[in-house]
Amino acid sequence: MKQFQSYRQLERFLDEIQGSGKFYFSIDDIEQHFHLKQTSVQKQIQPLLKLQKIALIRNGFYAIVPAEYRNLGAPPVTYYIDGMMQSLNRPYYIGLLNAAAWYGAAHQQPQKYAIIIPPPVVPAINKPYASILFVYKNKWDEKALEQKHTNAGYVMVSSPELTAIDLCYYTKHAGGINHVATVLQELAEEIDPIKLLEVAEHYNSLMAVQRLGYLLDFLGFSEKTKFLKDWIKKQKYHAAFLEAGKKNQQSKITGNSWRVIVNTEIETDI
User: Where would you tag: which of 1, 208, 215, 216 has the fewest CB atoms within 10 A of its CB?
Assistant: First the structure.
């Protein structure tokens, strides 16, 4: 059995973890390595927290803070999110505006980092150095995800096509329909029309697909929707409001092939 004498021994162990390319650990990891009870581990962790060499992300899970991130309190979410979701045994992907940023469509830095997961609920993380919003979806097509390399391993990110449809479904989490349109102006270049159709065929909301099709046409990217438009005509779908949740008394006559009721004026920031 390893003898646990001080937090410096823990610090050396964490240096070994970081040297292997990991920037996170759990209470369980320390308990198992040193054969200690949780209360003993937490006591030894406190000096490292005060020195900002580690940061509490959520109960029982910590990020190791490299020197260059000490002034921020924690490394970027991408350094530890994959490890955290593995510790929770939950599938996930980075989505919405954060996913769009991977494809050069980062118009504004979102205040919260959006992680898509299936239910049940995981409490949001609201810390000065870590702000993570969990957005819920029952299922998704794994083929619509991309594994991206980071400075600390890999993370799962929605493809440009899935990102685009998600933005049109979770518009409130993406800053509203006008902000979605602004992001789509930059994201559209990365969208493959055939892959877009494949993602739409497995998506849980036709209304989100309708909004996306309308917006891409409106923004001048009709070549991206040519396969999608033919497909959706064969589906049983209803008229959809462009801005979801906005009360509107206007006619259900849309005047466009996507059957989108234009209940707001689109204004982009580009």
Answer: 1
